[in-house]
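Homework help board

Subject: predicted structure for assignment chain

Our instructor gave us this sequence and asked us to write out the predicted structure in token form, then describe one feature. I got the tokens but I'm not sure how to describe them. Can anyone check?
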Amino acid sequence: MTDHRNNPLRKMVLKLIDKPVWLQQFLLTRLFRHTVKLSGTARQDIVQTDLKIVTFRQRNLKRVQNHIGGVHAAGTALLGESATGFVVGINLPGDKLPLLKTMHIDYLKRATGTLEAKASLTDEQIQMMLTEDKGEVEVTVIIKDEAGIEPVAASYVWAWIPKKR
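My token output:
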């Protein structure tokens, strides 16, 4: 069985977990934006994580707005992808490669203001990621707007494979 020890992203999160929240947010956000360039372009923020749950924020900036002044549909999809990908990424062993397999989004209501996405994994999913060479998980994600409304229903399925074939 493999473990998390060789996962550099997880190591970084563990180094920051006992630091002040503002420092965690700043450094994790900078690291993620640098690694995932589109997240940097959209200026997404990591709000918090405890390794099983992560919260990402997408402010309603001009650069991500649609024609009616809200966060663009693609920006909303990116927010969910980033949050689910991050929580998968910090829980996979370092010798596995995470790959987005499917994304399904139903746009239900008009979103207002800043969006937050909270993605989480169960203990069973994490155990599967540690023990199986290849596999997939459907990652739970809830996306809410500034008014506390869930403007979308989204599901993301992430797969993993060995980095070296």
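Reply (TA_rk): Your tokens look well-formed. For the description, you could write something like this. Strands lie at 45-49, 53-58, 96-107, 115-120, 135-144, 152-162. That's the kind of observation they're looking for.
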